[in-house]
């Protein structure tokens, strides 16, 4: 009897290891994800820097937008607010997120406390007479690649942390190649990514940034990063912050972002 049980276990292991994706029978969607948009002001005008590539994520037909969301990692996810009593990262404090693809909103409702970012966009649309009020809101965890209506290489939006925006787009849709992964558990996968680089302090350009400042009226870049000495010299007087309406965060160690 024990031998029979062992044989059954071996058969189950073989079934678990059997390929479930076959060449030509499913399709794969390649998403390009760009780093967070960094607007800066010059006078009364708001400008955007050219988007920088961050990573390419490949999903198969049955993957959901929530699977894609979990593969998007932002440098601001791991920052920590200097005013927060808990030692939580921004991603832990603000886990909600949203995609806007082809005039449809896709929100993350895997937990009831996650916010619906589309509500504020639709409210803005009602005030300004924008078509956003007529856009449909769907749940990203229920939306597979087979359900999506996309236009190749048309810019779409991923928003998280309240107001951190990323450009995303579908670069190609293919039926795969013979040497692609044959197991659905291997997807989504990161095909390529830009290795994180530590940028210099916004002021001195030499020091390693330890602080991130947003919503400041004293600098043109939002958000902007500073080393400890420059931050204390420009934003503090005798240890007290001189611009209380701005937001201040502890910068993340970019070497851990993959």
From TrEMBL:
One Gene Ontology CC term in the entry: nucleus
GO biological process: snRNA transcription by RNA polymerase II; snRNA transcription by RNA polymerase III
Keyword Nucleus: yes
A GO MF term: core promoter sequence-specific DNA binding
InterPro entries reported in the protein's UniProt record: snRNA-activating_su3 (IPR022042)
Coiled coil residues, start to end: none
Main location, first listed in the record: nucleus
Protein localization: Nucleus
Sorted UniProt keywords: DNA-binding, Nucleus, Transcription, Transcription regulation
Domain of life: Eukaryota
Family: Belongs to the SNAPC3/SRD2 family.
Described function: Part of the SNAPc complex required for the transcription of both RNA polymerase II and III small-nuclear RNA genes. Binds to the proximal sequence element (PSE), a non-TATA-box basal promoter element common to these 2 types of genes. Recruits TBP and BRF2 to the U6 snRNA TATA box.
Record text on subunit structure and interactions: Part of the SNAPc complex composed of 5 subunits: SNAPC1, SNAPC2, SNAPC3, SNAPC4 and SNAPC5. SNAPC3 interacts with SNAPC1.
Record protein name field: snRNA-activating protein complex subunit 3
